[in-house]
Amino acid sequence: MAHDAEPPRFEVLxxxxxxxxxxxxxxxxxxxRAVLAVLLLARNTPVSRxxxxxxxxxDAVPSSAVNLVQTYVAGLRRALEPDRARRAxxxxxxxxxxxxxxxxxxxxxxLDVFEKRVSAANRLRAAGDPATAxxxxxxALGLWRAEPLSGVPGLFAEVERARLTERRxxxxxxxxxxxxxxxxxxxxxxxxxxxxxxxxxxxxGHGLLMRALCQAGRQAEALAAYRTARRVLIDELGVEPGPxxxxxxxxxxxxxxxxxxxxAPPVSAPPAPPPRPSAVPAQLPRAPGALVGRxxxxxxxxxxxxxxxxxxxxxxxxxxxGKTALALAWAHRVREEFPGGQLYVDLHGYDxxxxxxDTGEVLGRFLRALGVPAADAPVSVEERxxxxxxxxxxxxxxxxxxxxxxxxxxxxxxxxxxSCVVVTSRRRLTGLVAHAEARVVELDMLGCDAALEVLTxxxxxxxxxxxxxxxxxxxELCDGLPLALRIAAARLAVAPSxxxxxxxxxxxxxxGRLSALGLEDGNSTVRAALDASRRxxxxxxxxxxxxxxxxxxxxxxxxxxxxxxxxxxxxxxRGLDSLAAANLLTPVEPGRFTAHDLVRVYTRALSAELDExxxxxxTGRMLDYYLHCADVADGLLPVxxxxxxxxxxxxxxxxxxxxxxxxxxxxxxxxxxxxxxxAELAASARWWVHAWQLPYTLSRFxxxxxxxxxxxxxxxxxxxxxxELADPDARFVTLYNLGVVLLQFGRVDxxxxxxxxxxxxxxxxxxxxxHARALITxxxxxxxxxxxxxxxxxxxxxxxxxxxxxxxxxEANAHHSLGLLNTATxxxxxxxxxxxxxxxxxxxVGELCGESACLTDLAGALLELGExxxxxxxxxxxLGLAVEAVSPYHxxxxxxxxxxxxxxxxxxxxxxxWQRALTLLTELDAPEADQVRARAARARTGPAPVAGxx
Length: 950
Hints:
mainly alpha
């Protein structure tokens, strides 16, 4: 955008408009205007793509929603910044993380100007000048041109229209109250009569009309207005008028002055947007495609649900028979009957390479999905189970427990009626039948007709004359097993020249080896079908299928496949596409593939047949790929990192593009499950360097995302690896990180022990950075125990060590910590001095998150000193840096502090900032959410206390 171009002004109090230099900006189609509305109402705050999609489309989300949002944002950028060069960075509407932020000056939106005038009226009223306050409100109301957000479609716009309309009505009533207070009631009688006619259920409006009529000397009409109000309230709501209306009636009947002997109430503070209800969990995976041959089973499930208000249903059968597909298809079919939501978990009861999920972990997942912060979840299985039953006691929910091994671990997961539980298992689970009167739906192999339908549907080509017998033969060879049928049919789909008879003959030559697939029936020919599909592949896809058995994660990308196989990226992509075409892999999104659990078992069997040297080399390349990419991404994060050198033996030739922190965070989020699985594989297979360095490269990501449980688990595993290596550098880093995460769990004694170990190792290494870091974290730990003198000694020693060794980040952090210590001991002036000293050091080393947190803490100290304007400026700067750092956690801290400052200063907007902080912390599942919620609640009854960092 040209530097001299005037930014547009926006209007939402009527038709949605943008105006620049007196000329209206063309905002495009209705949906594009809806996107602008979402961004405007969240102005200067990031909005994720998911939030935009939900706001614009609601439940009717098109498959191209993400692309459409990108298109609309591009259109808005062109409209709002027409002079911007084609490849120049946008200034007004910028990309932030996985979403966007629209920068709007305070006076550039009519809604903000409206609220500014209302705030001015508040101050005038408080200063004893109701007449001028009334005029100020009249000017504010003059900004409303029509129904707010006119012309903007969608449920979001409807909700916001209702909220803004309610806001206008409240201010209209406030203005009438002030007008009556200063004797201008007679002027408003007609306007109030119209308002009451339009909103007949607002008792305050009826009362204001009565008072205005009395001020005009029209007492009889005031009594008639009361009778009208009483009739409406009784007819519509079945209630008598409230005490204020009854008091007014009695005053008029007695010939008394109806005005109460008290000052008019203050102008209404802007209400916060209505809080969104706690998210209803909707965890069901995507429903399968057409379900063939299972009409009877679906009907039985329907009947069991109709006969029992809260049934426990067990879908059982052999592996690959379609238990999960049936359960998911039925769950999606009846989901509307469960308004309380749906919970889903894969228990991994029969996964050869993973231990079944622990019952306590499953309960923890369910509790988090129901809104219980991880830190508040009980420890024991019994207590978690009791809390789950309590939370869902009055909710009608559907729980799908997939791949269960036995009955005992399921019992604590069962809520009471009216919820429904569906379990899939290879066993009949007679214990669950006895304990919970579970009803069993047993799946057999598909009948011949259904198997033929699967074959022809997936093959996607008409059967030729003479094919009927061959198709029946294929159905027999596949044992009616849906997975085997689909794999065989995929051969026909991707190879038009392959005759049905040829495929039948090929399958007939195979001998099933079921143990390799982990199935029970030793006479099955599933392995034969899989082997036949593999033989039909070209050489590289066939080799790649075996190499995928070495990959520990749930999804594979072309980059990871290329590194594992040691081939160019394009060749890996073609190989994955070939496997997907043969139904051996499933694309989950562009560039990501997964495999059915049976195919995964098959790939494991193939990888075990590889030469040991090839297996070892491919595993090393795969682990090196993840380590290298994680290190690159970690280095882009806006968080200070140590001096560990990551030097994998095989640096991958081609890696995903990671140009900045946004891309780095997106890659880490997408690959988190694979990275954690790679670290676990490294630990179990004795790749000790990878086993500690992978968790190290992920530690800052886990900290930014407040994923403390995964951070703790991987770091504890890393510590065991460092013991095997006897590497003091590795041991220091891992002890340091372990102490930090233990402290976040409140396990202070354990954290203290780890930090003391780290300090001893740091001193022995003679490394100033590590020595100082260890001193600081040790100081933080003893400060949490209330030992301020000891903490201060550690911080001051850290400053000396870091200065001597040129460890600028550690020096900044030590100053910051001394600032927080003085905050904790209620010495705000000293706190501000230390925090101000830390800021330029953070800035010097480019530590955005540290600088943001320091500014947040400085705002608290300044507020305690009564320097409200400076506190507000500091908190806003903190938020800006947190947005730049793409750190939702630090954005939440800054929003919370902004809210506290605004609340203590009597300025509007605190509720919106608290709501945003709560949204971010809830999404992160961070324990600080409860502290913020409590502060927001206290603010409704008194000044909000200033808090330090959670």
